[in-house]
Amino acid sequence: MRSRRAERRLVPLSVWLCSDTASREPKAKDRLRVAEQVCERHRQAVGRELARHLIGACTRPGGVVADVFTTSETVLVAAADMGRLGVGCVPRLPVAQHLVGRLRQDLAADQRAAVRLRPHGPHALREALLGLEGRVELLIAALPPYPEFGQPTGSTERSCPTCRSEQPTLGVTQLGRFLEDTLHVLAPDGYLAVITTARYERGRLLDQAPAIIQHAARAGLTYLQHVIALRVPIEGDALVVQPRPAELAQLRRAQSAELPPVVSVHADVCLFARPGRGAR
C-alpha cells in the first residue's frame, strides 16, 4: 500500500472542459485576407475557453495577465473582456502587425487601452515586463509542441505570419533562466501556467512537462496542479473529434501498419505558484 507520506506528495489532477464550440466564423472581409490569418496550430495554442478558465481561477479584476509566447490575440482578448490588463510578448513585427488588426476588430477602444504589446521574446522576460515587476498575477507560457521550441521541419503553413517569422526563441538550456525571471515578475502568490502538448517525433513520444517541473522546482516555484484541458466537446462518454480537411487528407487504410494521423484533443497545463510574502 502507498504510505501516507507518499500520498501527500501526489499532485492534484484536474480536467477542464475547454472546447471552443462557439468559435467565431471569419467575417467576409477576413476571408478576403486569408494570407494574413494565423494558422490553426498557433490560433489554438491557448484556446479561448482555456484562457478564460486560467484568468478566472488565478487573477482578480484589475490584475495583470502576461502571455509569454503570444501567437494569437486569444489571451489578450480574454483578459480585456474580463477586466484585466493583458500584456503580450511579441518579438516578431509581422505577428505584432497581425495582432494589432485583430485587436481592433475584437475589442472596443476602451478595452484596447487595457492591452499592451511588448517587443520581447521569453528569453527577455524581465525587459518585456519592465515596470510590472512583482505585479503579474498570471503568466501564461504555451510552449510550441516540438523540440527546442522552434518550427517543425516541413511546415507548410507559409501564409501564417507567425509561421513565417517563427524561430527558436527559448531552448531547453535557457529554460532555467526563464523560470528564474518568472519569480522576479510574478506577484507574491502569483501563478505560472505552462501549457504543453506531447507529440511523436521519430517514433518516440516527447513530453516537455517532466523537465519543466524539475527546472521550476530548482528555480523556487511551487508545483500546484496538473490540468488536462480538453479541447474537444464531450457527448455522453465519448469525445467528439472533428478533424479538419488537412487531417482528413492524412487518413490511411485501416490495414496500414503506419501510425494513424494524430489529432490534438487536449493540452497539459502545469500550474506553479510563486511563494507568498509569508513563505520562507
Number of helices: 12
Number of strands: 12
- First-residue to last-residue Cα separation: 33 Å
- Mean pLDDT comes to 77
Q: How big is the Rg?
A: 19 Å
Taken as a percent bin, the fraction of beta residues is: 15-25%
For the largest beta-sheet, the strand count, sense and barrel status come to: 8 strands, mixed
Low-confidence stretches: 1-8, 23-36, 146-157
Order of helices and strands: HEHHHEHEHHEHEHHEEEHEEEHE
What is the topology, as strand order, of the major beta sheet?
1-9-12-6-5-2-3-4
Report on this model:
The chain is of the alpha/beta class and 280 residues long. Helices cover 30% and strands 22% of the residues. It has 12 helices and 12 strands. The strands form 3 sheets. The chain has an 8-stranded mixed sheet with strand order 1-9-12-6-5-2-3-4. Strands 7-8 form a two-stranded antiparallel ribbon. β10 and β11 form a beta hairpin. α4 packs across α5 (74-81) and α10 (175-185) crosses α11 (209-219). It is globular. It starts with a helix and ends in a 7-residue tail after the last strand. 34% of the residues are buried.
